[in-house]
Design a protein that fits this description.
The chain is mostly helical. Helices cover 51% and strands 9% of the residues. It has eight helices and five strands. α1 crosses α3, α3 packs antiparallel against α4 and α3 crosses α5. Belongs to the TFIIB family.
Length: 211
């Protein structure tokens, strides 16, 4: 989880208090308190009743189901990486699966299509690693409207507390895509000089505040 106060991903969970804290600054990022103590409250009729709600114990079959779900998600993300030609291998798959794990634990996957959540997690991992891929690349692969996938991406960023992260705040650097496009358009060595010229133009635009 992203900590907007110190700008780190490092988090730790205090199981006894049900709190997720930043290991860097110690600030509480998420709190999920529950207790085994019984308390009673009076209802509208004046009768006492048990307060709170029961938390079901996680059984072994549920743990196996969760493990299968994560394995399926990892397999889906790996297939998407291969289909889109994203380099990096495990260095891209691992953080994407980590994002999906958090989404699963927070019930973010409930009511949403599995492949859309996988694509959003992989897109965040690509943005973090500065890979030259846009959200529309993922939407075209899934054959869905880019605005549908964009909504899932923004909701996931909110869940991960990434609203103030550069992934969301800063626009994509156009220089990341130059080599990708020139390599597709020009098959000879000419694309190297074209890439250099394009990068110089982008750098000039940045200096002149034209980006």
């Amino acid at each position: 989880m992203w900590c907007s106060y110190c700008g780190k991903y490092i988090t730790k969970t205090d199981v006894t208090e049900g709190k997720t804290c930043c290991a860097g600054c110690g600030r509480v990022l998420f709190e999920d308190n529950f207790t085994e103590d019984c308390t009673f409250v009076k209802g509208a009729s004046g009768q006492s009743k048990l307060a709170g709600s029961f938390v079901r114990t996680v059984q072994s079959d549920e743990s196996l189901s969760r493990q299968r779900t994560l394995q399926d998600a990892e397999y889906g993300i790996e297939n998407m990486v291969y289909a889109l030609g994203i380099d990096g291998g495990a260095s891209i798959v691992r953080p994407a699966v980590a994002f999906y794990t958090i989404a699963l634990e927070r019930n973010f996957t409930r009511g949403r299509r599995k492949e859309q959540v996988e694509a959003a997690c992989l897109y965040i991992a690509c943005r973090e690693s500065k890979k030259p891929y846009l959200l529309i690349d993922f939407s075209e692969h899934l054959r869905i409207n880019v605005y549908v996938l964009g909504a899932v991406f923004l909701q996931l960023c909110k869940l991960l507390s990434l609203e103030e992260h550069p992934i969301v705040q800063k626009p994509v650097d156009p220089s990341l895509f130059i080599h990708k496009f020139t390599d597709r358009l020009f098959r000879d060595r000419q694309h190297l000089s074209i890439s250099r010229t394009a990068l110089q133009i982008v750098a000039s635009m940045k200096r002149d505040w034209m980006q």
